What does this fold into?
Amino acid sequence: MAEILSPSVFWAQTAHTISLRVDLKNVLDPSIELNDDRVTFSAIGCGGQGEKQYQFSLNFYLPVDPKESSYRVQARQVDFSIKKQGAEWWPRLIVMQKKPHWLKIDFDKWKDEDEEMAVEQKRLHKEDFGDVGPFDEARGRKIVEEQEQQSTPGLKIRYIFFYNLLQFIAYTIIFFTLIGRYLYYGEYAVTTAFSVVGSRLIFTQLIAYLEIIHPLLKLVKGGWMAAFMQVNGRNLVLMLIIAAEPRLHNQPLVFWLFTIWSLSDVIRYPYYMLSSLNLDWGGITWLRYTAWTILYPLGFVCEGLVILAAIPFFEDTGKWSFALPNMWNFSFSFSGFLRIYLLIIFIPACWFLMQHMYKQRKAKIGPFPKATRTKKVK
It folds into this structure.
């Protein structure tokens, strides 16, 4: 059986287009088919194995527009200009995370959303793709230095690993305490959830403020905003509302909210532990970026219902409120704040976190499957 040879293919992107450079000389009459989700190429040309038949096929990360795309055969290469269907930056060219060895980055054409993202993106591609062809020597040296620093299991990596390990253990204990007591005691476990695990949950949620600090200190990748919104949103409900109002302690909503929170963290912390060691276990990654589609909406609903249930209680007690006259000449109604919080902050924050998780899912395991139409370049 004849060996299937593939040429070196270099790619780059902007927000709107993908460029491919097929490293084949003296190509005549290539066979090319471009659909909205795939490109196939076959031609006789002079490549790394001499003048032979070369071919390749790539399944795109997201759909493209074949009608607005083109290619040009030149003496030393074949160039493609492929139009994206949507204006967005792709985390990689193809659907599969593992790329073929002949697919490389064209750093002469590579662009990123901003200069801060440029170095990070190239470093990630350097880790994934190895030798990716010609690029600026100073930039390349910086990328290699960053890669070497990341490969050294120093104090930072140990700290992040053990932080996530301790949080995983804490939330695992909380989750199985809730479920175990529910299976054994039934309804009694539902009405006593706060008295049993409330203090443990408050402690772990206070420690979770470190997750806002970690990205600010560059201890982990990513931004701090999502962690800021999630940690403060939880702690507002947990400490300022549930813990401060005894009449909420025996509400079934509290049991289900604590169960959803703890299960969500039992799933996500193992992923963070592996990520700190630059490891990727497919099942854990898939679970981390799929389970949220159920747990996040359920958690948001429970949080919203707890806030609604708490408003009349805080109107009655005046807890966290300030009435006039006082030395600051300032009044504040906590129950009024909760109403404003629900409408102006809580709902947009839920939407932001859902969008954030969906973008991360697309970057890690691809978008949710959807039917696409097949088009050919004429």
